[in-house]
Amino acid sequence: MLRNQPPTESVISPAPEIRTEEMLLNVGPQHPSTHGVFRLVVKIEGETIKEAVPVMGYLHRGTEKIAENLTYTQIIPYMDRLDYLAAMTNNYVLCHAVETMMGLAIPERADYLRIIAMELNRIASHLVWWGTYLLDIGAMSPFLYAFRDRESILDLLNELCGARMTFNYMRIGGVKWDAPPGWIEKVANFVQYMKKELPNYHKLVSGNEIFIHRLAGIGQYDADTALHYSLSGVMLRCTGIKWDLRRDESYSLYDRFEFEIPTAVEGDCLARYWLRLAEIEQSLRILEQAVQQFPADGEIMGKVPRVIRPPAGETYVRIESPRGEIGVYIASQGKDKPWRLKLRRPSFMNLQILPHLLVGANMANMVAILGSIDIVLGEVDA
Amino acid sequence: MLGFTKGLGFTLKKLPEKKVTHKYPDEPFPMPSRFRGIQHFSPEKCIVCNQCVRICPTDCIQLTGKPHPDPERKGKIIDTYDINFEICILCDLCTEVCPTEAIVMTNNFELAVYSRDELYKDLTWLDGNRTNIREEN
Amino acid sequence: MEEHVQLTPLERYVTRIGEKFGESAIENAYINELAKHVPTLVIQKEQWKEVARFLKEDESLHFEYLSNLHGIDYEDRMEMYYHFYSYKHRQNLAVKIVLPRENPSVCSVAEIWGGADWSERETYDLLGIHFAGHPNLTRIMLPDDWVGYPLRKDYVEYDEEV
Amino acid sequence: MRELVQQPLTMWNLLLIVLAAIALLLVVLVFVTYAIYFERKVIGWMQLRPGPNRVGPLGLLQTVADVSKLLLKEDTRPKQADRILFALAPVLAYAPAFTVLAVMPFTESLQFADLDIGVLYYVGLSSITVLGVITAGWASNNKYALIGGLRSAAQMISYEVALVMSIVGIVILTGSMNLREIVEAQRDVWNIVPQFLAFLIFIIAAQAELNRSPFDLPEAESELVAGYHVEYSGFRFAMFMLAEYVYMFAMGTMVTVLFLGGWLPIHPALSFIPGIVWFVVKFSLYVFLQFWLRATMPRIRSDQLMSFAWKGLLPLAFLNILLTAGFVSIFA
């Protein structure tokens, strides 16, 4: 050091008391437990989170802009890629919106096929959530069991519509394929197998004390906060509000099946965990009744004009997807392409409560809370 | 304190059970008959009606027709037909809309290539891809 | 209170809001058959803030759940579409607001319904509608240095087809 | 081996000792490669999948392939990393894990150094690994590594105390800290029977010391990506993996020696089976328990971990010491 050089600022030690300042930590967009390209800029002190700012848009493909110059049949493959874990529900919500606008009648057999496909997809989506959520908490094996059972669902859907995840199965006014011979029996066998398999899931993890301590009381909020943040699906039902669009604003043939709406009261991660597993049981019950009531014959496609032109005007429909209430708004000017297509995406709305839940939580809780919201990034950034 | 012992018992019971892994590279993966794989194109059936180009959501099909060689038959036959598999999403709308079933889906899905321009498949390649073609379309 | 019973939900809303804010507040009110007969109100842009608070706090309306919020570009005007639901009365309500095409601006409802926060940011990001009073109105989907609003009909592609 | 150490130091003796040490190192390295292989196989089987089976017959060469890949890979170092500490951390983590094996009595004759303070030597040296982990966390100039390093510091120190306290019970019972004498004292009944509470505490504290299964917080994949060794690659990363498994080897021998009666047969009638077989059987039982726990148990949270150590394990350990002392003073 030159002797006559004045000491620079950094050389002099800082103020006498030790200055602690928060650390800005980037969680994502490439991070094992953000379920996709989702970045969370977290200001932490030690390990408690002071403030979390989510950064999104990494998977924004501008589906709404593309849809404005596509005909309705062409939009359906794009809808598969929003919530790619439950593509059937996305297909259905678009077809349901256009059918409501045009007032089309759907043949019964097509509606049954749609409901069976949607409920199978709901179980597959909850299985993926169950496997990856436990991977975040640290248990490695449940992931493999969940994906083994999901594989049998994907095989069923693959036989039905030719694809494992991006189905493109439903058309405006009905469905594209009829059930192949023997498919319904395979669905019935799967339902029996899954009923025996669910208690094993509970045996593996649900009783584990470490697991319960990791989730009880974490990410807790009450009914009013849930409504304030427009949460839907399991995020709403875990605070005690008994609301499921399949029953309360019934669409398709859901009023023919009787099933309960599982709700909880605590509103924490553990409640959401139990709710989603209970929802798998309810979907199995619906599937069982749907397979029994499945009509022996009937068309799979209603009377639909060759070029689909919904009347000028607008519509907004919403149905129950595994992640919550998915809605589609279509403004049409009588042409075969929508003037404006808006997608009300449950993951995007449910994620708004994350910054508020994370204040004061620590890193391990952050992973537990984010996992319990069950987001799919294709849907958040649509 | 018994909760985690149940879990341990469960994993121990799974130890001797039959494995579910499918040895894919060694044994071919059996796809159901309706599986949407890479398209097969039969040029003699095509009547150059451009339906598939119009319906394709990602506009990945380009085709050019030329007038029929022998004069008394009018109409066109296909000259070049290529699909850009970089953006094709195998959504099966083109086969649905094709009036003469010139383009149908096959069940094979292996399409890994080393360079992007190998993904531009032309007419001859699509015609050659005729293994396990899907029966019902 | 008895004569309220025969009124359809739509008339009930119109009368309730009319008493509180005067007839001018509601430009138009109709039942939208295409959307499962949801009652739709078109409300004046200026009084939207008070009407919104009234929609939530008033006992007979009590719309505490905002299901969806977004903007539409009709080339000669901009429109905002809100969809509410009241768990107490099991009622749907759609509210539309007409905005001018050039620098459209409406007051934000993010304080009333927390769920509106990100939807308003997304509408601002993609359509360029300014929300006065929004706590943190920045782009949510696109990078912050993005030029233009993609969902507008006159939007010029930022980069030509790759 | 013990007689060699007492004789005067001639060139020949020195050579023999060095060769014996290298032999032990080879044994440990072979153990590590096949411990990793069997861990992936056992966890695979528990998850209904076959585990590694592509490299070599039945996948036996899988770990050899991994280690050679690690050796050939470039040894990256972050730009602002603290050069000296970054290189020192793996050595600090690995060295104590290996030196601790000097004092382990594998069988009556097979022991390197018969120290009278074997237990103290083991406990003293094994806490140096914490330093290696913290320097790794600090030196790699990465936020995730820092959190991982600090977490593991807190965890290893608090469980070190519980570990030591649980051993004190045995030392009182046998009256000496010499590991060979502890094994000799278990001739009629193994220590696991009278000291079952200490056995439980030891097992749990050992899990935390090794950063494994319910307590693998420092390298929690889902939160900290890979904890303190996130910036390491190539040979240095191999050193950390080596340290973890050699330390598991050491902890396994400690459990067998302290609680399961080292090379002693279950029943004197079976003593025709050589001691080393007994030792290996008990040792692999403990290692299997590790794999089993790793396949099933979720991860505990860091604040729960702390309160469990100080408010749960430590009082139990003191209670155990009290009982043993009372028992010994009444009957001795």
UniProtKB/TrEMBL annotation, chain A:
Subcellular locations according to the entry: Cell membrane
Enzyme class: translocase
UniProt keyword list: Cell membrane, Membrane, NAD, Quinone, Translocase, Transport
Catalytic activity: a quinone + NADH + 5 H(+)(in) = a quinol + NAD(+) + 4 H(+)(out)
InterPro entries for this protein: NADH_Q_OxRdtase_suD, NDH1_su_D/H, NiFe-Hase_large
Highest taxon in the source lineage: Bacteria
EC assignment: 7.1.1.-
GO molecular function, one term: NAD binding
GO CC terms of this entry: plasma membrane
Domain NADH-quinone oxidoreductase subunit D stretches: 136-381
Keyword Transport among record annotations: yes
Membrane topology field: Peripheral membrane protein
Main subcellular location of this protein, as a coarse class: membrane
Coiled coil: none
Stored NCBIfam families: PRK06075.1 (NF004739), PRK12322.1 (NF008974)
Job of this protein: NDH-1 shuttles electrons from NADH, via FMN and iron-sulfur (Fe-S) centers, to quinones in the respiratory chain. The immediate electron acceptor for the enzyme in this species is believed to be a menaquinone. Couples the redox reaction to proton translocation (for every two electrons transferred, four hydrogen ions are translocated across the cytoplasmic membrane), and thus conserves the redox energy in a proton gradient.
PANTHER family membership: NADH DEHYDROGENASE [UBIQUINONE] IRON-SULFUR PROTEIN 2, MITOCHONDRIAL, NADH-UBIQUINONE OXIDOREDUCTASE 49 KDA SUBUNIT
Assembly description: NDH-1 is composed of 14 different subunits. Subunits NuoB, C, D, E, F, and G constitute the peripheral sector of the complex.
Recorded family membership: Belongs to the complex I 49 kDa subunit family.
Protein name per UniProt: NADH-quinone oxidoreductase subunit D
UniProtKB/TrEMBL annotation, chain B:
Protein name in UniProt: NADH-quinone oxidoreductase subunit I
Keyword Transcription among record annotations: no
Entry cofactors: [4Fe-4S] cluster
Organism for this UniProt entry: Brevibacillus fulvus
Record family assignment: Belongs to the complex I 23 kDa subunit family.
PROSITE patterns assigned to the protein according to its UniProt record, in alphabetical order: 4FE4S_FER_1, 4FE4S_FER_2
Family matches, as Gene3D superfamilies: 3.30.70.3270
Species lineage: Bacteria, Bacillati, Bacillota, Bacilli, Bacillales
SUPFAM superfamilies assigned: 4Fe-4S ferredoxins
NCBIfam families recorded: NuoI (TIGR01971), PRK05888.2-1 (NF004540)
Keywords per UniProt: 4Fe-4S, Iron, Iron-sulfur, Metal-binding, Translocase
GO molecular function: 4 iron, 4 sulfur cluster binding; metal ion binding; NADH dehydrogenase activity
UniProt cross-references to InterPro entries, sorted A to Z: 4Fe4S_Fe-S-bd (IPR017896), 4Fe4S_Fe_S_CS (IPR017900), NADH_quinone_OxRdtase_chainI (IPR010226)
Superkingdom assignment: Bacteria
Keyword Translocase belongs to the record: yes
UniProtKB/TrEMBL annotation, chain C:
Keyword set includes Nucleus: no
Catalytic class of the enzyme: translocase
GO molecular function per UniProt: NADH dehydrogenase (quinone) (non-electrogenic) activity; NADH dehydrogenase (ubiquinone) activity; quinone binding
Enzyme nomenclature, EC number: 7.1.1.-
Keyword RNA-binding applies: no
Every NADH:ubiquinone oxidoreductase 30kDa subunit domain range: 42-156
UniProt xrefs under InterPro entries: NADH_DH_suC, NADH_quin_OxRdtase_su_C/D-like, NADH_UbQ_OxRdtase_30kDa_su
UniProt keywords, alphabetically: Cell membrane, Membrane, NAD, Quinone, Translocase, Transport
Gene3D superfamilies: NADH:ubiquinone oxidoreductase, 30kDa subunit
Binding partners and assembly: NDH-1 is composed of 14 different subunits. Subunits NuoB, C, D, E, F, and G constitute the peripheral sector of the complex.
Family: Belongs to the complex I 30 kDa subunit family.
HAMAP family, A to Z: NDH1_NuoC (MF_01357)
Name of the molecule in the record: NADH-quinone oxidoreductase subunit C
From TrEMBL, chain D:
Subcellular location(s) per record: Cell membrane; Membrane
EC number: 7.1.1.-
Alphabetized InterPro entries for the sequence: NADH_UbQ_OxRdtase_su1/FPO, NADH_UbQ_OxRdtase_su1_CS
Enzyme class: translocase
Ranges that cross the membrane: 12-35, 84-107, 119-139, 159-177, 189-206, 245-266, 272-293, 313-331
GO biological process, one term: aerobic respiration
Known catalytic reactions: a quinone + NADH + 5 H(+)(in) = a quinol + NAD(+) + 4 H(+)(out)
Glycoprotein listed as a keyword: no
Membrane topology label: Multi-pass membrane protein
Complexes and interactors: NDH-1 is composed of 14 different subunits. Subunits NuoA, H, J, K, L, M, N constitute the membrane sector of the complex.
UniProt protein name: NADH-quinone oxidoreductase subunit H
